[in-house]
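C-alpha coordinates please, single chain.
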Amino acid sequence: MIYFELLWAFLQVGTFSFGGAYGAIPLIRDTVLSHGWLTDEMITRMIAVSESTPGPIMVNMATYIGSTQAGMLGAIIATLGVVLPSFVVILIIVALMKSLIKNKYVQAVLKGIKPCFIGIVLAMGVYMVIINFFTDIGRAALDWRALLITAVLFAASISYQKIRKKEFSPILLIVLSAGMGVAAYAL
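Here you go.
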Protein backbone atom coordinates (compact mmCIF):
# COMPACT_ATOMS: atom_id res chain seq x y z
CA MET A 1 0.00 0.00 0.00
CA ILE A 2 2.82 2.44 0.86
CA TYR A 3 4.35 1.90 -2.59
CA PHE A 4 1.12 2.89 -4.32
CA GLU A 5 0.74 5.91 -2.00
CA LEU A 6 4.28 7.06 -2.79
CA LEU A 7 3.78 6.58 -6.52
CA TRP A 8 0.43 8.34 -6.60
CA ALA A 9 1.58 11.23 -4.37
CA PHE A 10 4.71 11.92 -6.38
CA LEU A 11 2.95 11.47 -9.73
CA GLN A 12 0.66 14.30 -8.61
CA VAL A 13 3.62 16.42 -7.51
CA GLY A 14 5.42 15.80 -10.80
CA THR A 15 2.28 16.51 -12.83
CA PHE A 16 1.27 19.79 -11.16
CA SER A 17 4.68 21.33 -10.43
CA PHE A 18 4.92 24.13 -12.95
CA GLY A 19 8.04 26.26 -12.84
CA GLY A 20 10.43 23.70 -11.44
CA ALA A 21 11.48 22.78 -7.96
CA TYR A 22 10.45 25.94 -6.14
CA GLY A 23 6.95 25.53 -7.46
CA ALA A 24 7.02 21.91 -6.29
CA ILE A 25 8.14 22.53 -2.71
CA PRO A 26 4.68 23.65 -1.49
CA LEU A 27 3.09 20.62 -3.19
CA ILE A 28 5.64 18.23 -1.71
CA ARG A 29 5.22 19.84 1.71
CA ASP A 30 1.44 19.56 1.58
CA THR A 31 1.57 15.96 0.34
CA VAL A 32 4.12 14.83 2.91
CA LEU A 33 2.33 16.53 5.81
CA SER A 34 -1.07 15.18 4.77
CA HIS A 35 0.32 11.62 4.75
CA GLY A 36 2.24 12.20 7.99
CA TRP A 37 5.49 11.04 6.41
CA LEU A 38 7.64 13.86 7.85
CA THR A 39 7.22 16.75 10.25
CA ASP A 40 7.30 20.36 9.08
CA GLU A 41 10.75 20.82 10.63
CA MET A 42 12.08 17.72 8.84
CA ILE A 43 10.72 19.01 5.53
CA THR A 44 12.45 22.36 6.02
CA ARG A 45 15.74 20.60 6.73
CA MET A 46 15.25 18.33 3.74
CA ILE A 47 14.73 21.36 1.49
CA ALA A 48 18.07 22.75 2.66
CA VAL A 49 19.82 19.42 2.10
CA SER A 50 18.16 18.96 -1.31
CA GLU A 51 19.32 22.41 -2.41
CA SER A 52 22.86 21.72 -1.24
CA THR A 53 23.28 18.35 -2.94
CA PRO A 54 23.70 17.69 -6.66
CA GLY A 55 20.59 17.03 -8.68
CA PRO A 56 17.09 18.49 -8.91
CA ILE A 57 15.43 19.35 -5.60
CA MET A 58 12.23 17.43 -6.48
CA VAL A 59 14.17 14.26 -7.25
CA ASN A 60 16.31 14.56 -4.12
CA MET A 61 13.27 15.11 -1.92
CA ALA A 62 11.23 12.32 -3.52
CA THR A 63 14.14 9.91 -3.16
CA TYR A 64 14.68 10.82 0.48
CA ILE A 65 11.00 10.68 1.41
CA GLY A 66 10.53 7.39 -0.45
CA SER A 67 13.53 5.85 1.30
CA THR A 68 12.39 6.96 4.76
CA GLN A 69 8.96 5.46 4.19
CA ALA A 70 9.69 2.26 2.27
CA GLY A 71 13.43 1.76 1.89
CA MET A 72 15.26 1.49 -1.42
CA LEU A 73 12.19 0.37 -3.39
CA GLY A 74 10.21 3.28 -1.95
CA ALA A 75 12.97 5.68 -3.03
CA ILE A 76 12.90 4.29 -6.56
CA ILE A 77 9.10 4.43 -6.79
CA ALA A 78 8.84 7.99 -5.43
CA THR A 79 11.61 9.16 -7.75
CA LEU A 80 9.96 7.54 -10.78
CA GLY A 81 6.66 9.09 -9.75
CA VAL A 82 8.08 12.60 -9.64
CA VAL A 83 10.03 12.40 -12.93
CA LEU A 84 7.61 10.36 -15.06
CA PRO A 85 5.12 13.19 -15.79
CA SER A 86 7.89 15.54 -16.97
CA PHE A 87 9.43 12.79 -19.07
CA VAL A 88 6.12 12.06 -20.81
CA VAL A 89 5.32 15.75 -21.32
CA ILE A 90 8.76 16.44 -22.80
CA LEU A 91 8.39 13.50 -25.18
CA ILE A 92 5.00 14.82 -26.34
CA ILE A 93 6.30 18.40 -26.66
CA VAL A 94 9.30 17.32 -28.69
CA ALA A 95 7.03 15.37 -31.02
CA LEU A 96 4.67 18.32 -31.47
CA MET A 97 7.15 21.17 -30.92
CA LYS A 98 6.85 23.21 -34.09
CA SER A 99 3.08 23.43 -34.21
CA LEU A 100 2.52 23.49 -30.45
CA ILE A 101 4.87 26.30 -29.48
CA LYS A 102 3.32 28.70 -31.99
CA ASN A 103 -0.25 27.94 -30.93
CA LYS A 104 -1.84 31.04 -29.39
CA TYR A 105 -3.76 28.98 -26.82
CA VAL A 106 -0.60 27.27 -25.59
CA GLN A 107 1.07 30.67 -25.32
CA ALA A 108 -1.94 32.00 -23.40
CA VAL A 109 -1.83 29.08 -20.96
CA LEU A 110 1.89 29.57 -20.36
CA LYS A 111 1.42 33.31 -19.79
CA GLY A 112 -1.43 32.59 -17.38
CA ILE A 113 0.59 30.07 -15.37
CA LYS A 114 3.57 32.41 -14.93
CA PRO A 115 1.96 34.77 -12.33
CA CYS A 116 0.75 31.75 -10.36
CA PHE A 117 4.26 30.33 -10.28
CA ILE A 118 5.69 33.66 -9.13
CA GLY A 119 3.17 33.79 -6.29
CA ILE A 120 3.95 30.23 -5.20
CA VAL A 121 7.72 30.86 -5.20
CA LEU A 122 7.29 34.15 -3.32
CA ALA A 123 5.02 32.56 -0.71
CA MET A 124 7.45 29.68 -0.22
CA GLY A 125 10.37 32.10 0.09
CA VAL A 126 8.56 34.13 2.76
CA TYR A 127 7.60 30.94 4.58
CA MET A 128 11.19 29.67 4.56
CA VAL A 129 12.49 33.02 5.84
CA ILE A 130 10.00 32.96 8.72
CA ILE A 131 10.82 29.34 9.60
CA ASN A 132 14.55 30.08 9.36
CA PHE A 133 14.51 33.20 11.57
CA PHE A 134 12.07 32.10 14.23
CA THR A 135 12.95 29.03 16.27
CA ASP A 136 9.49 28.82 17.83
CA ILE A 137 6.72 30.52 15.86
CA GLY A 138 4.28 30.42 18.79
CA ARG A 139 6.69 32.36 21.02
CA ALA A 140 8.27 34.40 18.19
CA ALA A 141 11.77 33.55 19.44
CA LEU A 142 14.19 35.06 16.92
CA ASP A 143 17.19 32.96 15.85
CA TRP A 144 19.92 35.60 15.80
CA ARG A 145 22.49 33.24 14.30
CA ALA A 146 20.28 32.53 11.28
CA LEU A 147 19.57 36.24 10.90
CA LEU A 148 23.30 37.07 11.07
CA ILE A 149 24.26 34.37 8.55
CA THR A 150 21.57 35.57 6.15
CA ALA A 151 22.62 39.21 6.54
CA VAL A 152 26.31 38.39 5.93
CA LEU A 153 25.49 36.31 2.84
CA PHE A 154 23.14 38.99 1.51
CA ALA A 155 25.75 41.72 2.07
CA ALA A 156 28.48 39.61 0.46
CA SER A 157 26.28 38.91 -2.54
CA ILE A 158 25.29 42.57 -3.03
CA SER A 159 28.87 43.81 -2.49
CA TYR A 160 30.27 41.30 -4.95
CA GLN A 161 27.65 42.28 -7.50
CA LYS A 162 28.46 46.01 -7.11
CA ILE A 163 32.24 45.53 -7.22
CA ARG A 164 32.63 42.79 -9.83
CA LYS A 165 29.51 43.63 -11.88
CA LYS A 166 28.43 39.98 -11.98
CA GLU A 167 26.44 37.53 -9.87
CA PHE A 168 27.94 35.89 -6.80
CA SER A 169 28.46 32.18 -7.38
CA PRO A 170 25.62 30.08 -5.90
CA ILE A 171 28.18 27.35 -5.17
CA LEU A 172 30.29 29.79 -3.16
CA LEU A 173 27.16 30.97 -1.32
CA ILE A 174 26.33 27.37 -0.37
CA VAL A 175 29.89 26.70 0.82
CA LEU A 176 30.00 29.96 2.82
CA SER A 177 26.60 29.33 4.40
CA ALA A 178 27.57 25.77 5.32
CA GLY A 179 30.78 26.99 6.93
CA MET A 180 29.02 29.75 8.83
CA GLY A 181 26.33 27.29 9.89
CA VAL A 182 28.94 24.96 11.33
CA ALA A 183 30.69 27.86 13.08
CA ALA A 184 27.44 29.29 14.47
CA TYR A 185 25.62 26.12 15.47
CA ALA A 186 28.16 23.35 16.01
CA LEU A 187 31.11 25.08 17.69
